[in-house]
Hints:
It is a single chain. This protein is an all-alpha fold. It is globular, with a radius of gyration of 21 Å. The protein contains 16 helices and no strands. Helix 2 runs antiparallel to helix 7, helix 3 packs across helix 8 and helix 4 runs antiparallel to helix 7.
Amino acid sequence: MTEPPPGHGAPALAASTRRSHLVDLTPLRVSPAFARLWFGNTLAGVGTFVTNTAVGLHIFDLTRSTFMVSLVAWFSLAPMVVAGLYGGAIADRFDRRSVALVAGTVAWGSTVALASIAWADVRAVWAFYVITTVNAVAATIASATRQAITPRLLPAAMLPKAAALMGISGGIMVTVGPGVAGVLVAQVGYAWTYTVDVVLFFAGFFGLWTLPRIRPEGGALTTGGFRSVVDGLAHLRRAPNVRMSFVVDIIAMTFGQPMVLFPAVGALVIGGGSVTAGALLAAYAVGGIVSSLGSGRVTGLRWQGIAIRNAIVVYGLAVLGFGAVLAAVQLTDSAVRSMDIADVDRWALAAGLLCLAVAGGADNISAIFRQSILQSAVPDHLRGRTQGVFTVVVTGGPRLGQMFAGTLATVTATWVPPVVGGVLVVVLVVVAVARVSSFRAYDALHPQP
């Protein structure tokens, strides 16, 4: 508890070119506090994705409607945006360790509530919407605060390497979590599946509890409220590079998130039910893990704005490819698939898994550099609020994507959202970046917000 944060007041290490393509583990060695946070967050995150996947499958089982699954995003979006903005202001005013612990406790309580209604066999869908909204609010505050903590635990030159490690962490969460959820739901039911998250959540508490106190430095807030949020947003008007990193991610996540379609894809298009849905989510994460494992030299790239643009273009093309696979099945194959994994269309599943793996890898490369820009170019006393906006973007964007994909699929066909969305991602990102010269010229050795 008294261990000083390695990054607090430490001079930035000189940037060096890494010869190996393998991921650089140096941040875990130089900062035991970061290592504990990383390991704890990874285990807790696996449980979170178990629950997130199970909720979608549970609602689909109760309603047989992709639109009803997408309503999870509709109901939680506005509260989550408010939580991100005010949560960032709280992180810029109080001890960030304490803020993260309180928010984590609320998120854990919402998971306990999900397990409880599952054990009681409550079938009212509105209860799932209420509980998942509370969970989204608490998780948004906790995530924004944890990310604002990281630059205080590591020297500045280590931040891209830390972002790559977080990519591995996120990949493990999305790979293991949905896969475990699919198997558990099929074998032991929803109540036990939610209970797994209740237990795994304690690992995240350990990672936070062992951190030192981390007060904001360089002008911490003395008052909260709406004014502090406005001051944080005003900083974005003077930060075109940080702002553009948000814009391109919103584009990618709004139009290129087909995850809400996976239950229907498993039930009606490719076949295989919950196992297929879990495999599709896992493929996306596997791509992220592989890209992080091979990030040793990538994290040394200087021109990070161009790297973000190129990565998101690849992402959009991969999502388009996934839509083309679904279109080929729905437009040419008249067979009626079942929830039985033995009845799955193996060729379509293999092609879909490949497209999603490429998409996951490209998204992770983009995330590494977007996070690096935010953490290196924003002053510490504004980092909580800016990170709050970032968290709203990275968690709210996919919810907009669920709304877009779920609604469009309801009025058209399952393959339409990824095809239309993939094209929009490529076109809009290229146009947006072309309009901001400072983002195209962003140099990691001379970070400018």
